[in-house]
Amino acid sequence: MKHELMTREPETYLESLEKEFNNFIKDRLMPSHSLNKLFAWRPAIEVKQNDKEYTVKVQLPGVKKDNIIVELDNDNLMTITAEAHEEHEEDEQRKHNERYHTSEFRYGKYQRSISFDNPVKIEEADADYKNGVLTICVPKKNQQPSESKRLKIK
Fold first, then answer.
1. Neighbouring-strand partners of residue 12
2. At 32, is the secondary structure helix, strand, or coil?
3. Secondary structure of 40-68 in the HEC alphabet?
4. Are 44 and 106 in contact (CB under 8 A)?
5. Full-model pTM
6. Interacting residues of 122 by C-beta distance below 8 A, sequence separation 6+
7. Pairing with 56, which of 15, 31, 72, 140 sits 20 to 30 Å away (CA)?
8. How confident is the model at residue 147 (pLDDT cuts 50, 70, 90)?
């Protein structure tokens, strides 16, 4: 295949160190329940392809189906927008003087764009959301390999 998608490791060594450092700072210097709104939420994705289609999986735990938008355009670009909302039980918590001790849940808006290296059939794309995983199948357009052409010089 002429164009292959890049295979990536789930986390590189430096990204892992950066995450650990950020978690250390967050845990020591700031109240944990307010931090989740300040830092970027970046769920994991997986992109596969075969001769006929691309399959994109996005981990979106705790996100309601109605809070997910998937848009495809004719430039072979797909944009996924999702939002996870914090459950509010403030009145009940105030009655019992409850407050967060620890919260590592992610809340907020998320947007990610994925470009495909081959033209896709946006009208035949399909999405399914089950158990916190969004799966999107995007069929490829049939492309005939272009033959080279020798130009006659005038």
1. none
2. helix
3. CCCCCEEEEECCCEEEEEEECCCCCHHHE
4. no
5. 0.64
6. 72, 73, 74, 138
7. 15
8. confident
